[in-house]
Amino acid sequence: MSLSPFQKEKLEYYFNFFDSDGNGELEIDDLDGFMKKVYEFTEWEEWSQNARDCYEIHECFFHTLTTKSSKEGKVRQHINLATWLSMWEKLLPGAMSMINFPVWLRLLPKSLFRIIDKKHDNVIDEKELADFYMKFVGIPKENVDSLATYAMEQMTDHGRWPLTMESYNQMFANFLIGKTPYGPGRFIFGCFEHMAERTEYQLIHGLEELKQTESELKNLDLLQHSPLNPSSIVKVKFFRPA
Ligand SMILES: [Ca+2]
Ligand SMILES: [Ca+2]
Fold first, then answer.
1. Cα separation of 122 and 114, whole Å?
2. Ligand located closest to 119 CA
3. Domains in the chain and their CATH numbers?
4. What pTM did the predictor assign?
5. pLDDT digits (tens, 9 = 90+) for 96-151
6. Ligand lying closest to the C-alpha of residue 162
7. What share of the chain is helix, strand, coil (3-state, %, to 5)?
């Protein structure tokens, strides 16, 4: 399966998200730098249960990543972007939700949810999301508030479906699986709005892309809520007229 340009952009961001030393490769040495960022953001003590859980999940992620990418019996110690993308080309086909991914990947959004949910009330609110966008993703302060407001509207259908662990997982699956820049999963890291603007008009001109987007959103909708309930987290307003 080939990745769409938007998927490549998202997955490249996700690669850099873990490449804490910025050397263009993922390796076990990135773990400490990544965890340092987590400790600074969450203010967790290193010995706390939250910190240890997060460390274990990401240690397993880095180890499995290198093992999975081994070639001809040789374990790769360093994963470059091309290897990372080809891993996703194998993992993504047929996946519709996080449950379709191996455990070592399924734990990542759960861990990220715990990182963002600073108040530990099992729901991500707008302030927490804004804080994450600004301090962890590095989105400029002047853009963060309006972005977080819009992101929360889109991810919760204007507050109807709070951003719990369950719905966050579905957003994260849409982040990984969504081929077009119109699903709510683009707000996981909040830094892809330029793609939505750039391709806004292509959507209505490209029937194939429209069908693709519709089917992605339909999948998400079916997973999110009962098919009997017409209320959907995904609104038609993604399809803006030219
Ligand atoms: Ca690195
Ligand atoms: Ca919270």
1. 8
2. 2
3. 5-238 (1.10.238.10)
4. 0.82
5. 999 999 999 999 999 999 999 999 999 999 999 999 999 999 999 999 999 999 99
6. 2
7. 65, 5, 35
